[in-house]
Amino acid sequence: MPAIILSHLRKAAFVVAACVSIVSPAQPQIDILQIWQNFVASRAAAEACGGVEKDTDTHFLANLSDVRIRALQALQERNPDAPKDELPGRMTVSENAVHAKVDEEIKKNGCSSDRIEQLLKMYKMHSTMHL
Fold first, then answer.
1. pTM over 0.90
2. How many of the other CB atoms lie within 10 Å of CB of 113?
3. Nearest residue to 127 via CA among 73, 68, 53
4. What is the residue-wise DSSP string for 39-55?
5. Assigned domain for 94 exists
6. Residue 24 lies in a domain
7. With contact defined as beta carbons under 8 Å apart, do 60 and 120 qualify?
């Protein structure tokens, strides 16, 4: 992976670590899988709460793709014995779980809850990053 992408991912990890995560707020360290889950959660909130705009989402999706690729690489490194065709399925299961948590938060507390507002801010930040 080019050094510039790794540099941007490290910066993203620092920024995301400063935000409260809806996925697992108790984790003391954040890694690429957490970053990826935060991307997924922020987009789920934006989709559900009307925060998706075409231009913004185009940039967001490009960044999400880069982060997803790196997260898949991390899963492969951490699970060298797992069949490579199985890992994307694990990611889909995780994405569905993240979406469910976001949906649950919105159902319980609405789009104006602190957690959802943080995710909406993260969505905008994620869409402006240059990975």
1. no
2. 16
3. 53
4. HHHHHHHHHHTT---HH
5. yes
6. no
7. no
